[in-house]
Amino acid sequence: MSIRTNYFSWTSVDIVALHDGPVIDPDRRDQVENDWAIKTCSEFVKDVFPGLEPDPCIVEHCIYTFPLPHSRGSSHGQTRIIRKAYTQTIFAHMMGEAYPMWSKLETETGILLQRTTGILAMGVNKKGYVAEVKNALTSNGMKYTELNSKDLHNLYDISMYPDSSVIMDPEGGILKSDTALQTYQNQFIKHGGVILDKTELFSLEPGEIITLHTNRGAYVARSVILCLGPWAGRFLNKLGVQFPLKAVRISVGYFKAKIPDQYEVGKFLPFIYDTDSAHFYGIPSYEYPGLVKVALHDGPVIDPDRRDQVENDWAIKTCSEFVKDVFPGLEPDPCIVEHCIYTKTPDEHFVLDKHPLHPNLIIGAGFSGHGFKLAPIVGKILGNLAMGKASTYDLSQFRIDRFQRKASL
Ligand SMILES: Cc1cc2nc3c(=O)[nH]c(=O)nc-3n(C[C@H](O)[C@H](O)[C@H](O)COP(=O)(O)OP(=O)(O)OC[C@H]3O[C@@H](n4cnc5c(N)ncnc54)[C@H](O)[C@@H]3O)c2cc1C
After folding, report:
1. What are phi and psi of 185, to 5 degrees?
2. What is the domain count for the chain?
3. For position 300, which CATH number holds?
4. CB 340 within 8 A of CB 252
5. CATH number at residue 66
6. What is the distance between the alpha carbons of residues 61 and 194, in angstroms, rounded to a whole number?
7. Domain limits for position 311
8. Which one, of 356, 5, 367, lies nearest residue 214 by Cα?
9. Which residue's CA lies nearest to atom 4 of ligand 1?
10. N or C: which end of the chain has fewer CB within 10 A?
11. How far is Cα 318 from Cα 320, in angstroms, rounded to an integer?
12. Closest to 287 in 3D by CA, of 172, 156, 115, 168
């Protein structure tokens, strides 16, 4: 995801153009005001084609700072967990729509993007995590399987902490994230979208027509969706929007199985474990043969442009302790450590909203380390906001003003 700008054409098949326009320097074609040409076209469409909506809607641009594919943000890496097992009812509900959207992308492209394995949701009882997941699944009419510590020991060689519970979400599994991202980008181009990488957005001028200033010149757009990942807070501040966002560096450890093959997909499951002191997750060996991915859902707060100037040994040590306690079949020191960034809001809900003063500036931010699986539905919600369409979801939980509402209570 990045910055998307809607240009002028009427639907993906009906393209209408005025046989005139502003005089330009061909090397600076986008640095010119041409709103009058779009308006003239709109008038023409209104008069002559009653079957077309008079306001243009398509031709989308996606702008990225770094050359693609890149590993400087939050979306790189080969795998992500996909699940309905959430504590928040709204996300379990949204996954009910996201799953078929992922499947549709697979059918359209013939590319396999997900592997259904089931996932384990474990937690110490006093924190209530598993009870909340059960509640969210039940209230959405979704299924789960009850297991106990003996099952986990026998089936997966997992030693749960005392007084813990576990359920299995049978629809959970692994999303092939790198492949998914590339597949979406290819489909975007196939359907007429334009991707501009190595293009940094420096600033933008809001208005009925938004002007975007980049290192490649200026662009104009009727609406813009800003999905800036860890850079969102800084950029939005410049646009007068402030809400609490933290960029957090996450260290992902890959731990070696003492018995080769024991933790392969098919024999072991992705998991989440909410312990007394922390929240962990993991994925069976899939990316690197014989290595299980385990991460702490936390890390040091960083400046995304200086991500490596921070000490985060404690995050890896915490992970190693957890592996030692819970997975006797894994070596407790990671063979590989990789890094990625979360952009967290205090309640770990996303921000999916319009700019408070400029309704054609749409904001998607704060995906809080769990946004990948929801990307299709997030894209749909943001696209609808950009086109002024109503959402089928109650978006109040994703609004920017929820932070002010909470602060004033
Ligand atoms: C280690 C890790 C594990 C995770 N595990 C899971 C999981 O199991 N399941 C799950 O669902 N989610 C998971 N997530 C979360 C998920 O990956 C993220 O929520 C999601 O990828 C966030 O995408 P994004 O588009 O917000 O950010 P990004 O991927 O960072 O994209 C933002 C883009 O905006 C560009 N940009 C920023 N500023 C500018 C500018 N001024 N001009 C031009 N371009 C700009 C950046 O270059 C970047 O390409 C995980 C995340 C991490 C880090």
Report:
1. -65, -40
2. 2
3. 3.30.9.10
4. yes
5. 3.50.50.60
6. 5
7. 119-170+246-344
8. 5
9. 369
10. C
11. 5
12. 115
Pair 390, 335 in one domain: no
Do residue 299 and residue 403 come from a single domain? no
- Ligand 1 pocket: which of 3, 84, 370 to mutate (most atoms within 8 A of CB): 370
> 175 C-alpha to center of ligand 1: Å?
15
CB neighbours of residue 255 within 10 Å: 26
Long-range contacts formed by 387-396: CB under 8 A, 24+ apart: 387/57, 387/223, 388/359, 393/90, 393/93, 393/94, 394/90, 395/352, 395/353
The tens-digit pLDDT sequence of the chain (409 residues) is 444 443 333 332 334 455 666 666 555 544 455 566 666 767 777 787 776 666 654 457 787 777 777 777 787 888 999 999 999 999 999 999 999 999 999 999 999 999 999 999 999 999 999 999 999 999 999 999 999 999 999 999 999 999 999 999 999 999 999 999 999 999 999 999 999 988 999 999 999 999 999 999 999 999 999 999 999 999 999 999 999 999 999 999 999 999 989 999 999 999 999 999 999 999 999 989 999 999 999 999 999 888 677 777 899 999 999 999 999 999 999 999 999 999 999 999 999 999 999 999 999 999 999 999 999 999 999 999 999 999 999 999 999 999 986 555 5
User: In angstroms, what is the span from residue 4 Cα to ligand 1's centroid?
Assistant: 15
**Do the Cβ atoms of 196 and 216 come closer than 8 Å?**
yes
The alpha carbon of 307 and the centre of ligand 1 are apart by a number of angstroms equal to 14
Q: How far is CA 312 from CA 9, 294, 302, 305, 338, in A?
A: 49, 15, 10, 16, 12
Dihedral of CA atoms 142, 144, 322, 74 in degrees, nearest 10, equals -30
Distance CA 374, CA 112 (A): 17
Is the model's pTM score more than 0.90? no
Q: How far is CA 229 from the centre of its chain?
A: 9
Cβ-based neighbours of 300, under 8 Å, separated by 6 or more: 248, 249, 310, 311, 312, 315
Pair 143, 294: CB distance under 8 Å: no
User: Residue 235 and residue 226: Cα distance in Å, rounded?
Assistant: 9
Q: What are phi and psi of 378, to 5 degrees?
A: -65, -45
Kindly state if the Cβ of 228 falls inside 6 Å of ligand 1. yes
Residue 317 tokens read as 């040590």
